[in-house]
Amino acid sequence: MDEQFESGGGDGCGGGPVPFCYGWENANWFEATEYCKYLEMRLAEITTSEKQAKLVYFIQSSDKYNAQSTEIWLGGNDLAEEGNFYWHDSGLKLGYTFWKEGHPDNSDNYENCMETRYFPPDWAWHWNDQSYHVKQYFVCENVA
Ligand SMILES: [Ca+2]
Ligand SMILES: [Ca+2]
Question: Please, which residues have CB less than 5 A from ligand 1, an ion?
Fold first, then answer.
């Protein structure tokens, strides 16, 4: 991965064409969404495999990366219609996806928000539907 995606700058933003920012608060999904909006950004929407790779690189370059287990909120949910996931800010239905096999599973009829999860050996930043109230880190992105 080239250097332009390394995080840099005092504001914690990454450079390059898909500038991610640290939205580094330990937040539930709604808090994460609001915090990104406060930054005039949005919770990350991952629409291509390239962007997924850039996001992963950004997270791994940060001090919030934990090699045992890392979970990061993404900007999608199926709150409006169970089983149909949309990116919250853009309103777009998911095109590219990176769901873990068996997910989304709407576990306990209660999982409606998206995260990317690193939990070796099975989870290599695959997407998971998760309960909104879980407190974890997240990544904001600039709105193109
Ligand atoms: Ca669901
Ligand atoms: Ca799940």
Answer: 78, 106, 112
